[in-house]
Amino acid sequence: MDFQTYFQDELEDHAIVLAETRACLEAPFGKMLAAWTKSIQNGGKILFFGNGGSAADAQHLSAELVVRFINDRAPIAAIALNTDTSAMTAGANDLGYDAIFARQIDALGKPGDVAVGISISGTSPNIVKALEMARSKGLVAAALTGRDGGVMPEIADPVIIVPSTSTRRIQEMHITLGHMLCGALEKSLKLA
User: Fold this and answer.
1) What's the pTM?
2) Which ranges of the chain have pLDDT less than 50?
């Protein structure tokens, strides 16, 4: 194993995805920021959810908003649906795993809230069903995804599609863009 080559190759691959992200995602980023800002200004909340690493990102971004990102400030209403293990496991047991987030959105979401589904492939059945539920209830159905976007462009707006087929590169851009959204939201709300 030539760790030096691996080290350099990984960073170069990251730099390529970063450059492509910079080149094509400014407008979708702005659209996502506008949706988040409008929701919070109107008394809404942001509901994040995902599976695996995307669940970790959902929890991470929710915490940045509820607690703080850069400066001490008033809390911003957000929740990571994948952190409620009792609701998730009961839903999976009683309704099926595909319904775990849709059920929570049905219970907790209200018109004007933003539901942010995070899915690397854009095809995770439980994320798709949750975004469909969000739309049917008058929430903004939003998504962070990658690859070709899967079905997310058909069911979510706004949607940010990281221009990569690599799971790790997509996840890296999701958390980078998520942090940028948190910081920009603080500034938009004049909290930072």
Assistant:
1) 0.97
2) none
